[in-house]
Structure formats: C-alpha cells, structure tokens
Amino acid sequence: MTNPAQPFRPHDLASDDQTARRRAALYSGSPYERQYSYARAVAIGRHLWMSGTTGYDYPNDRLIAGAGPQTTQIFDNARRVMAQAGFDLRHVVRVRIHIADPADYDAVMDVYAQTFRGIDPACTTVQAGLFDPEIRVEIDMDAVLDDLA
C-alpha cells in the first residue's frame, strides 16, 4: 500500500532525473506503521530500503510461531511490499538479521539460504534482544534494481 497522498507506480522507477528522485513510502498493512509513523519500505529511484520486518501474518493479525516459520513469513511480507514498487527478493543486495536466541541460528539461516541461493546478498547476522519474547527474528534489507537481477 503506497501513501495515498503520493501514489506510486512501478514506471516511476525510470531513469530520468525527475522520477529517479521520487520517494515512495510502502506499507504492509501493519497497524504499527501508522501508529509509530514509519513505512515498511522506502523506494527512491532504483533503490529500496526495507524496515526491520518480523514474522507477523498481517492479514490474519497473528505472529507465526517458531524461528524458521517466522523467517519464511518475513520473506513473504517482504515480497508483497517490494512488489508494490516493482522490486522482488532477487534485487536484494544487503540483509541484516537480528536473532533473539542463538539456538535459532540454523532454523533462520536455512530459510535464508533457500530464499537467497544464487542471489547471495551481503549479510550480517547478530544476536539481539527483541521487544517481544515471541518474536524470534527480525530482518531488514536493501535492494537495487539492476540489469543483473
């Protein structure tokens, strides 16, 4: 969902100077985006920056259980938001993964590896205290539209 005050269309990612500078805020439907005044992602020209995303199933308003399934849900959420601006996961160049419990590392990284095999973005994984003990993982990403993807 783009900001209704600034409608966004994928052709706005064209390379001319005027559209290359256009900023589009993209939303997932999470109530927290409006409550705390942030976008799930921001696209400017051929670049996209995605906020930290957790394993919430927003249409059903529930947190998926378990680190692996949450990671799968995160990538599903990311695909939907990126598609609003003509991006998808093959355009991801940088991933930052925050894992609450180091014991979940393999479950998270197995889903990550399956998702990004052949894309191989730069990746950093850290242990971090997350604000809700049921949230096992949070991931943010950067993407670039390029001729290689």
TrEMBL record:
Coiled coil: none annotated. GO terms for molecular function: hydrolase activity. This is Rid family hydrolase. The keyword Hydrolase applies. It comes from the Bacteria. It holds the Pfam family Ribonuc_L-PSP. It comes from Tistrella arctica. The keyword Hydrolase applies. InterPro entries: RutC-like_sf, YjgF/YER057c/UK114. Transmembrane segments: none annotated. Keywords: Hydrolase.
